[in-house]
Amino acid sequence: MKPRISMIGTGRWGKTVLQKFHHLGGLHLVYGHQNRDLLQPLNLRFTEDIDQLIEDSDAVVVATPSETHAEVAERVLQAKKDLFLEKPMALSSKDARHLTQLAEDGSCVLMIGHVLCYSTGFAKLNSMPGQTVSAHGKFLKTTSPEKYLNAYWDMGVHCVALAIALKVPMMQFKLNASAQAASNQRTFELQTRTPDGRVHTLLWDFLAPENQEDMLMVECRHFLACVKNRETPRTDGRQGVQTIEALERIHPEQHA
Q1: How far is residue 4 from each of residues 18, 25, 60, 106, 246, measured CA to CA in Å?
Q2: Cα–Cα–Cα angle for 4, 100, 17, nearest 5°?
Q3: I need a surface site. Which of 93, 116, 160, 207 has the fewest CB within 10 A?
Q4: Which pLDDT score is estimated for 122?
């Protein structure tokens, strides 16, 4: 039987995620007050009752404002429903660990929306030979409408999650993030050394025209496969916890 996938959150990013899941087979129910006029042609079933939505679903996609992630996710996981949770999974490692424990206790699929981990860039970086020498992530934007978090927690989290997924030791990782940069930049450079002493370097530019791809579609498809096959996602709760812990060390003032 096809799982009933529902969604909470239809805002700036949520509407984009919603459209991907709709394309992949539709959504059972949707909760969200934003962008309803834009989404009306999709003939979605909206509800004003989050608890009813959770109860009537097999899996829930949460793309609400970052400060609400932990609270909404907890409601989903306490109901023992699978969950796709947008980044950052929480604003503290304590909350992230709590959500992960809830998912494991309930045998729920918990996937965090670390979208760069579903790109061809991840595959190429992950195939680099040898041991990591250094890694440098940059996530620079000229402007950002995000008002609650700083650039590190709103955007740099992508590069941190990528480094975690690539098993880069955090002592060898450097991150630069900005919401008011001179130009947009989204790159990840990895340097490795093979046993023969040769150094290999790969700089992946996620904004380069030749590297453009629909990684969000790949990510959404991965979640559906994990729900269907009861598999652990590439970006599961434990990877999410590591990401939040790393962010707390790199930039502890998430509300700056």
Answers
A1: 14, 10, 8, 18, 34
A2: 45
A3: 207
A4: 98
Q: What burial letters (b/e) apply to 54-79, b meaning 16+ CB within 10 Å?
A: beebebbbbbbbbeebbebbbbbbee
pLDDT in tens, 93-127: 999 999 999 999 999 999 999 999 999 999 999 99
Instruction: Using a pLDDT cut of 90, give the percent of the chain over it.
Output: 92
pLDDT at 254 over 70: no
Give the pair of three-digit tokens for residue 204: 């992946």
At which residue do the structure tokens 């989204």 appear?
186
Looking at residue 144, what is its pLDDT? 86
CB 222 within 8 A of CB 95: no
Q: Are 188 and 137 in contact (CB under 8 A)?
A: yes
Q: How far is CA 51 from CA 31, 126, 243, in A?
A: 10, 40, 29
